[in-house]
Amino acid sequence: MKSRPSAHRSRSSKSAASDGSASKFAITDWENDDWSANIDEEEPDSRRIRSIENIPQPAALSRVHSSTSSIAPSKSPHSRDCSVDSRAQNDAQLNAEIEEINARLARITKFKSILRQPVIDLAALRKLAWAGIPDELRPQAWKLLLGYLPKNSNRREETLRRKRQDYLDGLETVFSRPLDQVMWHQISIDVPRTNPHIPLYTHHTTQKALERILYLWAVRHPASGYVQGINDLVTPFFQVFLSEYIDADDITDYDPKSLAKNDLNAIEADCYWCLTKLLDGIQDNYIQAQPGIQRQVAELRDLTKRIDSTLAAHLEHENVEFIQFSFRWMNCLLMRELSIDNIIRMWDTYMAEEPLGFSRFHVFVCAALLVKFSSELQQMDFQDIMIFLQSIPTGDWDEKNVELLLSEAYMWQTLFKDSSAHLKDNE
């Protein structure tokens, strides 16, 4: 996430609602959190979260004059030559930064022009979002792209109020009766293992929020219930929607316990509904026998044969089955292979590719990732291949690496979108 003006400060200090509209939901003995609060219906959502009209603009341009004026005049010819070279390098760097800032501001302006419309043009929003969404506009854009928020702006406030209340009512219902002990036990084990290297996800408030979201979703979707891996999928939503309510230099260090209860309720509800929208499109990945994942793994194998037949032949020669390494890629949507910041950027494109972004397009991304390391893999035996693919070296990847991967995936999709059918015809 980009830097923001001040660190770890909640944007809303308004206390939890205490009027008659508050939910009656109370956490049982196993939960210490106070859930008597409800969403503040007297304070519209648009007042509590950052408006697109009030986005802080980059202030880096002020460094131009100070940087160039700080170069002192040299006395010797050699020193003057060095000074000229240094000044030229500084000027080039500053010009590049200015161009980058201007490009970002231009993209923000384009997004604002779409998001201000009384009725959102989703096709235009998807087209623009494919290349990435500015951090400060991502929460609203994601909710629109997933269909959680209606296109008509006049209906959004009421939709948010109703959906958030439904989430709280759902919690009250499922936690007022005996828990499914097997399901709850698995969730309570998996949540602390979720992104343990990121401080945000080690905090008690975060973990309890994730537990509530996952348990309610699992109870309401008995065909699949809770499946390991879904815990990973909720975290990009939590991080993005949390950014609506705080100013933090690094959101991954933030402890949500300082949030107003109403704000945490809203974040949880938004995460729950957007997770539901995402999983609705890939739910056959998580039902009995996981046929969706089996199909994606088969498609990945077929794509690899078409894109890089040499690599495919080497994997076959070493008795490497695609299911052995790519099951996790499909089950967790590469969240174990890429940083969460890179995943968030990747999901911008996935949502722009809807309704098949998280299913069909994801297979092409996996294929692009696999063939990127083709030369290294072709020098390895079975054991080394499996070790490598379980820990792909993407730790130093940034947004540019992800965008290159997405571009390659789009190219493969354009060329081989019917690869499985072609292969079957050729067999």
TrEMBL record:
Q: Which domain of life is it from?
A: Eukaryota
List GO terms (cellular component aspect).
Answer: Golgi apparatus
Q: Where is the composition biased (Basic residues)?
A: 1-12
Query: Which residues lie in Low complexity bias regions?
Result: 13-25, 65-76
Instruction: Name the Pfam families on file.
Output: RabGAP-TBC
User: Residue spans with biased composition (Acidic residues)?
Assistant: 33-44
Rab-GAP TBC domain residues:
132-354
Gene Ontology molecular-function annotations:
GTPase activator activity
InterPro entries under this entry? Rab-GAP-TBC_dom, Rab-GAP_TBC_sf
Task: Please name the SMART domains in this protein's record.
Answer: TBC (SM00164)
- Provide the residue span(s) of the region labelled Disordered: 1-25, 33-52, 57-86
What is this protein's record name?
Rab-GAP TBC domain-containing protein
Instruction: Look up and give the organism this protein is from.
Output: Tortispora caseinolytica NRRL Y-17796
